Amino acid sequence: MPKTIPQNSGAQILMILRCLRPLRIFILVPHMRRVVYELCRGFKEILLVCTTFLLLTCLLTYFLLVLTVEYLNVVVCELNVP
């Protein structure tokens, strides 16, 4: 492999085409296409579950914070009553 390749040369075009070689396997092997689709679908579901868990965690934290602040307000109000 050469260290430097001039722009717009034949070597650069050949290297770009070499990078696209895995796509040919994806097109030629139908089982590989299904594997990739299922893998993408699995990542989508995992991301959805993680996002839902993060949202529920944030809501629970906010609820506990509000509950604590309201409790402290009630305690402070009761202490100030003569």
Describe this structure in words.
With 82 residues, the protein is mainly alpha-helical. The protein has one domain (10-80). Helix content is 84%, strand content 0%. It contains three helices and no strands. It has helices spanning 10-19, 21-28, 30-80. The chain is elongated and about 90 Å long. The model has no long low-confidence stretch (mean pLDDT 87).
Summarize the entry for a quick read.
The protein contains three helices and no strands. It is mostly helical and 82 residues long. The mean pLDDT is 87.
What's the overall geometry? Answer: elongated
Query: What average pLDDT do the residues reach?
Result: 87
Estimate nothing, just give the exact number of structural domains: 1
| Topology, number of strands | 0
What proportion of the residues is helical, as a percent range? over 70%
Output the structural class. Answer: mainly alpha
Order of helices and strands: HHH
Identify low-pLDDT runs: none
Biggest pleated-sheet summary? none
Give the arrangement of secondary structure elements:
Layout: H1 10-19, H2 21-28, H3 30-80
What would the keywords be for this entry?
82 residues, mainly alpha, 84% helix
